[in-house]
DMT family transporter (Paenibacillus aestuarii), 302 residues
Amino acid sequence: MNTTMNKPKVPVSVFLFIGIIAISFSSIFIKWSTAPAAVIAMYRLLMTNVLMLPFLWRYMPEIARIGIKDWLRTAVSGIALGLHFLFWMDSLRYTTVASSTAILTLEPILVLVGGFIMFGQRTTRTALFAMIIAIVGAVCIGWGDFRFSGDALKGDVLSLVGTIAVAVHMLLGQSIRKHMSAFVYSFFVFLFAAAVLFVYNLFAQAAFSGYPLREWGIFFLLAIVPTVFGHYVFNWLLKYMKATSISMTVLGEPLGATLLAYVLLGETVTLLQLWAGCLLLVGVGLFLRSNEKETGVQHEVP
């Protein structure tokens, strides 16, 4: 079955836009928090699981049919997502929002290469050219904030490792979502990711309690906005789009996060960043138009 069939009544682009805006808030909330990055990530995911738990019973027949192979792949996907949160969120302690999110632009390249190796997926020359345009735009957004020494370099390296981890997560998700619903996949991926972060926090001897009410509010906002309306939406979209295309739309995060950081954190926005943002959007639009014309990923489960 081609993914152009069974498209939702609401255009996919609407859900993509919602997801991009939602994940753009992630770095803002993290910057507002003073809790350790691993603690923020752990509670963000656990709160998401709690919100999803009342609906889990509807999916018990599907859960009972999951085989060991899919459980293992889901676990690895969850571990990769947990590592992404751990490294990327920690990077924001050392570098700017623009710099950290700009490094995330490497994600679609990694997913494109991984998709070719794992699934034999190919793309057009137009799509590759569009990807280059978008990545140049995203890198230009954070270029003035890149540093090659000190804490800023440490933050950039952490963001890079987190980007590799989320690429692994996206590729595994594309494979698993062929026969697993978005709800079940997301619930257990979030749970495995939270478990990884819980173990890390135990070894790091991080405090699990004693945080002021403001911090718990930030944890909850992270669960609702970038996790449910961001990561869950992207997991659901894997039924209708290739992982490469979804990763390309995530390139909108540097632009969204930079603009939000300007409004909410007082970080500067230059004319170069605004022009780079326009270049990024043009590149993403061209890529999606070209890449999604080809035969889509075969998915059967909503």
Remarks:
- Residues 12-123+147-252 form one domain.
- The chain has one domain: 12-123+147-252.
